[in-house]
Amino acid sequence: MSRTIRPLIAIPARFSVTTSALRFAAEVTARALAEAVWRAGGEPVSVHPADPAGHDVAARLARFDGLLLPGGGDIAPHRYGAAETHDSVYDVDDLQDAFDLEAARRALESGRPLLAICRGLQVVNTVLGGTLHQDMGGPGQDHRHLRHPVRLAPGSALAEITRADKVEASCYHHQHIDRLGEGLTVTARAADGTIEGVELTGGTGWFAAVQWHPEDTAHEDPAQQRLFDALVEAARRPRAR
Length: 241
Prior knowledge:
This protein is an alpha/beta fold. 25% of the residues lie in helices and 26% in strands. The strands form three sheets. A nine-stranded mixed beta sheet has the order 4-1-5-6-13-12-11-8-9, sandwiched between helices. α3 packs across α4 (119-127). It is globular and about 50 Å long. The two termini are 30 Å apart. The model has no long low-confidence stretch (mean pLDDT 95).
């Protein structure tokens, strides 16, 4: 009996100071993300964020069929040229930043299928020369612990993937795109104008990026699950290497 081989989807791990199950500090991948990739037919693989200065990230990614850049702590503001750091910036990790930025850069250069979520979208925007608003304004104005409608641009890749012109998005972020990175186009916005999705013009491979967390509701919302389905489908296709 023939078996379908699951495409390998790399997910950079996130550093955790404590984990009750392991008793020690750990590197973790959100279970909801792994399950969404698994439901889509992919094999989720947690990847250690080793220092790119001493380890070839392109070579490490070469064995994978796709890359999923997940949410996480804030990117250090100096990474996108900010002279000052807002008091609300949290969980900055230089090693995490260095690895994620290099992984995004290499995926974009190689055309490896890339799905970027929340921080992941911000990483891609930074790699392409964009900037971020460091804080959306505090309670009542940020997008933490919030579900709200997001409108998708007609004819956009996001609209085609989700098969919708509007989705109910689960958000947890206090930062968002300020200046768009080179080649990026806004294809999704919240009612308050916040950029919630972007696409890349002229990219060499499959790419989608959203500011919200589709993994939160993918188990019950087909539109959200389709983002992971599309990533895995793209990862199955032959790609020039």
